Task: structure prediction
Amino acid sequence: MTLLKNKFQYVSIMYLFLLGMSCSALAAENKEFAQQPRYQELKEVINQHTGFAHLTRGMNRYTIEALRNKVTEADIPVLKALTEDEDNVTRMTATEVLLKMGIKHTPSPVSPPGSQSTTYQHYQHSQRRGYSRILPADFMVYVNNNTVINHPSPGFQPTILKTVNQFLGNPGGYIACYSHINQGSAYGVGGDIYVMGQIRLPGNYQGRIFQPEHYEGKDISQANEFKMMCSKHFPACQHSCWAGGDTGGWGR
Result:
């Protein structure tokens, strides 16, 4: 028994040692990538197309498409390095672009030594939760250019964000219905994209991004189910809307 116990302890120590060596090597590799001009160039693309729709910095469909349009297969190693960046938005955007390119890449589950950030995988797990609050049908928000908040503030004008509470249970959250049509919208988020309204459905949030039930980890902007749902509840869509989950900024 003592021999087995000592052998188990030895194996455990060796595993932790090798894991630490792996993390150190990964950190060194990512640091090397981070110093390359292409890494900084792609990170700047993300920063320039980051959404501030709900006063909280986050990625949306526009952010992902902007980065996807700037990369080729030659950028895959750089994209993988970006998934280990200290910035949550950078990590999530790079991961989504890799998925669009048909590459399922899981960031390291352990933060590099000395890093204060969490990995995308840990971020997803720790931020997974439902939205218990039921918003009113005529939800008042306040807009200044492409920034919208949920409380009065100097320089911000009040407007109604039409809200459909199709699901009243928990866990749940809201999808936003986006369009390139300005008429009939509540506000714009930049890039010729406007919000028509929001719909409450069963599901959970990954950070600030809502993921409807059965659509965990999927790009809901391509789902016909939600396109039809948006057109049904918001006629101003004119059958041109798509859905997004960037609604976590209202507070949970």
About this structure: The chain has a mean pLDDT of 77. The longest helix spans residues 2-34. Strands lie at 128-129, 138-144, 147-149, 157-164, 172-179, 187-190, 193-206, 209-212, 242-244. The longest strand covers residues 193-206.
